[in-house]
Amino acid sequence: MIRVLIVDDHAIVRKGIRALLSEAGGFEIVAEVADGQEAVLCAEETRPDVILMDLLMPGMDGIEATRRITGRQPGARILILTSFAADNKLFPAIKAGALGYLLKDSSPEELVRAIRQVHRGEPALHPTIARKLLHEVAHPADLQPSPEALTARELAVLQRIAQGLSNQEIADELAVSEPTVRAHVSRILGKLHLASRTQAALYAVREGLTSDDEASSEGE
Question: Are 63 and 55 in contact (CB under 8 A)?
């Protein structure tokens, strides 16, 4: 039996997955939770074989929950199940430690197969996600290196962009105003010659700039 923890803020989704896995056979649902904080606590208590993780949830989102779970349990096997294929969600989720990334428009058979793959320690990716990853690997020169160094505060903002945080969430974490964050984002894009937050997130992940270790408390 594969022991599964279901993390999704929509009860109808959780019930649907439970019914699907019950019908498929070979699965035991250890728990259902509705947000990332509950997921972290429940994963610690139940030690499931596979965690099905939604991304957008109230409070702690799926990316942060994935990061915290894999930080405490390096062997945790997490399969992202979401409606979002955007790069600014995909790459931070993979960087956080997710072993699979599946879209909610996948068939029941694809979900069952993906859970079993992740349980075996094999990556499981929706075809759309696999194409995105392959494209980024095949075209590493698309994002040009910065000719001008980022300040410590700009680096801190860039790291949080890569984590999928909004401007307001970044402002709350860094104890600055949202307009200040917007100004930092604009300068970051200018220095890196990038066109969007998505490209900035990809740049940060690719260059290994997603850790807070080097960020200081430098002022605005």
Answer: yes
Same domain, 54 and 156: no
Report the share of the chain in percent with pLDDT over 70: 86
Residues 96 and 44 grouped into a single domain: yes
Identify the pLDDT of residue 65: 94
Domain membership of residue 214 (yes or no) is no
pLDDT digits (tens, 9 = 90+) for 169-196: 899 999 999 889 988 988 888 888 776 7
Which residues have a Cβ under 8 Å from the Cβ of 168 and sit 6 or more positions away?
178, 181
68 and 41 in contact (C-beta within 8 Å)? no
Structure-block tokens of residue 148: 């001008």
Rounded-to-integer distance, Cα 69 and Cα 65, Å: 6
